């Protein structure tokens, strides 16, 4: 069952066309017919795989999957950690609009994020409604149903944090534009229900075979339950669920921080949830994950987007090894021996976590079938530490904060000394700082600032410090969420209403 290893090539064959074209909002032509295609166990496998496929979008241009959720734009570029990059401000204008918080309702990044999530949700609903009637191994069927419940929770998590109130679609007979927007409290309640029901059934990571690596696990559901409660400021519940992940013993911090983002680290014991991509160097088409091209240097066949800011670089403490494992600059020696040239990067930096060394390149392309890592133990430790601090478990908070710093030292005890402060406010600040550098360029920063209720403060301060328009236009009470795509409002005939201020 190596379906997940080929998840994006499947979607490429079924759902894409070649060339950079606008994506039309329509039902995919390869959608499984409910009359004839939910009959055999193999049909169930294909349907579940199809439900995973929309999760594989984090890029731009050219293909249905490539447009994807746009995590890099909404999570990175909207924040103080990242400049948009590219040839000019008009190169991929949707990202420039997000950077300046001058975001129209027809912004491509927000449209892709919204529509791709609902495509995933509809596929989940099809599975939930139809594979229950397939004659197959009942334990496998139960696991499949749990996997797609996890996925529906994941898709709705991405939607609610980006758009607030959204249509709650729980039937394949309905499209998102058939319904009005549900209050975000109802959306949070549903995704928590999906994660909870999935967690009760899903296997532990160690119970999967190697061929099924990348499927949703019990630990992934627990981690996202913790994250959901953290976003809701229910710190006791967040501490409880993150604690379950830690107590499971299924995961361990990687000894090599950079390697876990490279192909060699795809099976890292630190990874809890990742989106799998084809990585056969002899495959046709030659690649699936376009993020290496998107973030790559224009001096080495990349497009030069997602530029780490000086403010982000300066956030690292002196001697922190993670700095040189997260970003690179001219003259740095890269993992394949290349002497770095960051091309036209206006900040002087590019992201090393997504650098594609020569030995990973497919048929000479900068693109590679490397996995996208969305949940890992380093994040769980620091989110656990934050939740524990808020409920008075100071000792536990310090322990897991310092575990992350210990790994970051990589044997050099002269850097990153243990944090010993016990004042709640001071410890919170220390944890937030550690999250920024530990999670650097991993699509968390903007949404973290929003949930911490300090996005406007931080972004306007950034604009003032660097005399830039980036962040200057952030409006409190408006820009914490993004506009509902105008196409959805039009399709709904006005039943879906726009977010205030857009």
UniProtKB/TrEMBL annotation:
Record-stated family: Belongs to the SusD family.
Upper classification of the organism: Bacteria, Pseudomonadati, Bacteroidota, Sphingobacteriia, Sphingobacteriales
Source organism: Parapedobacter koreensis
One annotated Gene Ontology cellular component of this protein: cell outer membrane
Name of the featured protein: Starch-binding associating with outer membrane
Domain SusD-like N-terminal: 90-230
Keywords (A to Z) from UniProt: Cell outer membrane, Membrane, Signal
CDD domains per UniProt: SusD (cd08977)
Gene3D superfamilies given in the database record: 1.25.40.390
Pfam families the record matches: SusD-like_3, SusD_RagB
């Amino acid at each position: 069952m190596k379906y997940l290893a080929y998840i994006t090539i499947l979607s490429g064959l079924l759902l894409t066309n070649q060339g950079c074209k606008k994506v039309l909002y329509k039902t995919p032509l390869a959608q499984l017919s409910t009359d004839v295609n939910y009959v055999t166990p193999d049909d169930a496998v294909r349907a579940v795989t199809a439900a995973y496929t929309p999760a594989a979008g984090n890029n731009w241009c050219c293909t249905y999957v490539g447009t994807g959720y746009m995590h890099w734009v909404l999570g990175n570029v909207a924040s103080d950690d990242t400049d948009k990059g590219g040839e000019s401000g008009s190169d991929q204008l949707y990202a420039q609009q997000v950077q300046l918080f001058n975001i129209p309702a027809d912004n491509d990044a927000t449209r892709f994020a919204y529509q791709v999530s609902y495509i995933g949700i509809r596929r989940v609903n099809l599975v939930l409604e139809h594979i229950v009637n397939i004659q197959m191994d009942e334990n496998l069927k139960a696991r499949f149903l749990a996997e797609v419940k996890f996925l529906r929770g994941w898709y709705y998590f991405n939607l609610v944090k980006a758009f607030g109130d959204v249509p709650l679609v729980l039937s394949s007979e309905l499209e998102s534009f058939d319904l009005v927007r549900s209050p975000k409290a109802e959306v949070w309640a549903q995704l928590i229900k999906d994660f909870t029901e999935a967690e009760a059934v899903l296997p532990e990571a160690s119970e999967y075979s190697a061929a099924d690596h990348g499927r949703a696990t019990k630990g992934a559901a627990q981690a996202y339950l913790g994250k959901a409660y953290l976003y809701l400021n229910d710190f006791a519940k967040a501490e409880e669920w993150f604690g379950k992940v830690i107590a499971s013993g299924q995961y361990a911090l990687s000894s090599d921080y950079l390697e876990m983002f490279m192909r060699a680290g795809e099976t890292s014991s630190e990874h809890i949830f990742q989106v799998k991509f084809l990585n056969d160097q002899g495959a046709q088409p030659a690649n699936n994950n376009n993020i290496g091209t998107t973030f790559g240097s224009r001096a080495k066949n990349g497009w030069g987007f997602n530029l780490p800011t000086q403010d982000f670089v300066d956030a690292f403490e002196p001697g922190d090894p993670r700095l040189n494992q997260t970003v690179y600059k001219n003259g740095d020696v890269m993992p394949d021996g290349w002497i770095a040239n960051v091309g036209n990067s206006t900040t002087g930096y590019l992201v090393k976590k997504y650098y594609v060394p020569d030995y990973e390149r497919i048929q000479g392309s900068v693109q590679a079938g490397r996995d996208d890592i969305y949940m890992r133990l380093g994040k769980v430790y620091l989110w656990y530490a934050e939740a524990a601090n808020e409920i008075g478990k100071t000792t536990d908070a310090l322990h897991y904060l310092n575990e992350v710093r210990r790994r970051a030292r990589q044997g050099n005890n002269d850097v990153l000394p243990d944090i010993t402060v016990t004042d709640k406010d001071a410890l919170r600040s220390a944890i937030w700082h550690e999250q920024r550098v530990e999670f650097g360029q991993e699509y968390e920063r903007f949404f973290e600032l929003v949930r911490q209720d300090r996005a406007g403060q931080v972004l306007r301060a950034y604009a003032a410090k660097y005399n830039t328009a980036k962040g200057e236009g952030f409006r409190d009470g408006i820009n914490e969420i993004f506009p509902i795509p105008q196409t959805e409002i039009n399709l709904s005939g006005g039943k879906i209403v726009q977010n205030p201020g857009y």
